[in-house]
Design a protein that fits this description.
One of its GO terms (biological process) is polyamine biosynthetic process. The protein is an alpha/beta fold. The chain is built from 24 helices and 13 strands.
């Protein structure tokens, strides 16, 4: 089999105009760029993907693993990839899944009424299509591996992956629309897939690529969308009772309205209640989730002398600054910060008369690699304690939203009670959608309640904490819908591996590399969520963490290439020591450090086990008999790790370290004897 792989790769190299090293870098960059673009774009049109967290990521990992395993089994280039991408884009644009506009209230998990194909139809299509699309670039990467020494190939693969992340991050910063992503994909396909005799190149590569670009261009021009780093943002003006209202949707979900303060206070009582429940009129106000500016306008109308407005999405703030009828962001009393609300609380030294969490529903996830939403760390007990620490004497903390469930109102009220040490004021303004306002003064005297809150009803779940920040998950369990879905994914993956790669015996010698892939994905998830807590859930932090993980992996490869590293048993010892260190260091201690010191400590704690794990992988991979099969087995392990990430819903993110330790122990037990020696 190895001879077949080398022969096929030699044919590929001989027929391609580009040298193997730049081709490997380009193919790796394209592979990661295409994966990120698919996650981002499909999530903006298929609302289910906002709640089935890493669905596209799992399909991508499966496709990348299959692409490596396919090397040597076929000499044909992967012309199927641009064809499947064109079909996927066409299907998603023809059959989008959006929220039924007649549904009101906050959305979480799968509590939503949608229009378009049901989840059980569209999600399998997305999963299979993502796997097939990514299998093409992965096969192009895999064809380069046998042409280079093992670690050289892995090194250039990582350099290409970092380039792909950097390019996508730059486009996110520039708010580039998807048509730009489509153009770059078309160019990459055109460069990497060269014409062959008896192959209809124009029909299989040029036409599908142009179709993708054309479809994305039409979407960009007709939707009138703004592309923030988090959403596809669309907006339109409405007339409501004679008042002009700017209606804003994100990813097809009704999200915010830019309404004059006077009209909003007249229509919905909840917006004025925080100021009525505070014992003294607030002069210094912090608004988290300032959005398009209505809450800021209300604070100014209530006499605030200074308003600090925190909003995570720059495009929502931009729309508010341009279109809000009251122009609150132009007021000299208002200061805006584009950042995560929890990060702002952890880093500012200002104190306030009123801190307000104003409907901070992100409706999206931190990344494709976790179950964490952008606002998850705002509703933990630790977050409310942080808010309490930033109140002036006589100050108050308040939040309001459409909570849908009475137990959710009680859960948040209980969390506030634990954080402040006394009962908060709880005003259920409307039982339809559980529209409620929850307010707590720094002391009982700093709040003026209406009817006293009776306390949490029996069966109310305990407050959430930073380790399990899953506010909308009532029970400490994995929802059955996810278990069924993940089970079907694994079954389909097993069948796909058997069909594409042949007998499983081919991968049996690399079972330890498979487990290394499972463990690595869990470590990556722990790093992403940990840094989101320590530095914010912003897209910038997320991009830096993913790049940092790849830099740690590249450093491990370079150290293994250039220096004599300790034997594998010793490196496994370093790995387990890193896991123990990560377990022992509490997040509360890290959050108490100054930001520069926190960065150093967090990088050390998070990346030590990642570095050690990848020295283990690099040493083991460099000695493997079949580069593409061993690498493919590792990538398929990462896909299984993506499934196991859901265990955090039960054991918390810290518990993933124990799961990873068990997996690494299994990998060590499966080491071949010669590798141990």
């Amino acid at each position: 089999m190895t001879a077949q792989v080398q022969a096929a790769s030699s044919d590929s190299t001989r027929d391609h105009w580009m040298a193997v090293r730049p081709r490997l870098i380009l193919a790796s960059a394209f592979m990661l760029f295409l994966e990120l673009a698919l996650i981002r774009w499909t999530g903006s049109n298929i609302v289910h993907l906002s709640y089935f967290t890493n669905f596209v990521l799992l399909g991508s990992f499966l496709g990348i693993g299959l692409g490596f395993l396919r090397v040597g089994r076929s000499r044909r280039q992967p012309y199927y990839s641009p064809v499947v991408l064109a079909v996927l884009v066409l299907v998603v644009l023809m059959f989008p899944v959006t929220v039924n506009r007649e549904t009101e209230g906050v959305l979480y998990w799968t509590s939503l009424a949608t229009t378009g194909p049901p989840a059980w139809v569209i999600l399998p299509v997305i999963f299979v299509a993502a796997a097939l699309v990514l299998m093409g670039p992965a096969e192009l990467v895999g064809r380069c591996f046998p042409e280079l020494p093992r670690l050289d190939a892995y090194r250039y693969d990582l350099i290409g992956s970092l380039s792909g992340i950097a390019l996508f991050t730059a486009l996110s910063f520039l708010s580039a629309p998807p048509v730009v992503w489509g153009v770059l994909a078309a160019v990459a396909y055109g460069v990497l897939l060269v014409p062959r005799p008896r192959v209809p190149y124009v029909l299989l590569v040029v036409v599908p690529s142009l179709l993708v670009v054309g479809l994305l261009l039409v979407e960009t021009l007709t939707a009138g969308a703004l592309w923030s780093p988090y959403y596809k943002v669309t907006y339109n003006e409405l007339d409501r009772a004679g008042v002009r209202v700017m209606n804003i949707q994100v990813n097809g979900i009704p999200h915010q309205e830019a309404v004059p303060a006077a009209a909003r206070l007249q229509w919905e009582a909840q917006y004025g209640l925080p100021y009525e429940r505070a014992a003294a009129p607030p002069k210094d106000v912090l608004i988290v989730g300032a959005g398009s500016g209505t809450d800021v306008a209300i604070a100014l109308s209530k006499g605030a002398q200074r308003v600090d407005a925190v909003e995570i999405d720059p495009k929502l703030r931009e729309l508010g600054g341009t279109y809000h009828p009251d122009h609150p962001y132009s007021d000299p009393r208002v200061t805006t910060s584009i950042t995560d609300g929890r990060a702002y609380l952890e880093q500012t030294d200002r104190k306030y008369d009123l801190i307000l969490f104003a409907l901070p529903d992100s409706l999206t996830l931190v990344s494709g690699a976790s179950s964490l939403r952008l606002e998850s760390y705002l509703f933990t007990e630790e977050a409310m304690r942080a808010a309490r620490e930033h109140l002036k004497p006589g100050g108050a903390f308040s939040m309001y939203n459409y909570y849908r469930e009475s137990w959710l109102v009680d859960r948040l009220a209980s969390t506030m009670q634990n954080a402040f040490g006394h009962k908060p004021c709880v005003d259920v303004v409307s039982t339809a959608g559980q529209q409620a306002v929850i307010t707590a003064g720094l002391t009982p005297d700093a709040q003026r309640c209406g009817p006293e809150w009776a306390g949490a009803a029996a069966g109310t779940p305990a407050p959430t904490g930073d380790d399990r920040p899953f506010l909308y998950l009532k029970d400490s369990t994995i929802p059955s819908l996810y278990i069924i879905t993940l089970g079907l994914i694994l079954i389909v993956s097993l069948l796909a591996v058997r069909v594409v790669a042949g007998p499983f015996a081919r991968m049996r010698p690399y079972a330890d590399l498979f487990l290394l892939g499972v463990g690595f994905l869990l470590l990556e998830t722990k790093s992403v969520t940990g840094f989101a807590l320590l530095f914010g859930t912003t897209w910038v932090v997320n991009a830096i963490v993913f790049a940092g993980v790849l830099v740690a992996v590249l450093a491990a490869v370079e150290v293994t290439r250039r220096f004599r590293t300790p034997p594998l048993p010793v490196m496994y010892g370093v790995l387990f020591a890193g896991l123990v260190l990560a377990w022992l260091v509490p997040n509360t201690w890290l959050l108490g450090l100054p930001v520069p010191v926190r960065v150093v400590a967090a990088v050390t704690v998070a990346f030590l086990p990642i570095f050690a794990a990848n020295v283990v992988f690099a040493k083991r991979f460099s000695e493997s008999a079949d580069a593409t099969t061993s690498f493919g087995a590792n990538l398929l392990g990462a896909m299984v790790g993506g499934c196991l990430e859901y265990l955090a819903l039960v054991v918390g993110y810290k518990g993933l370290l124990i799961v990873a330790a068990v997996l690494y122990l299994g990998a060590f037990a499966l080491l071949p004897r010669r590798a141990v020696a």
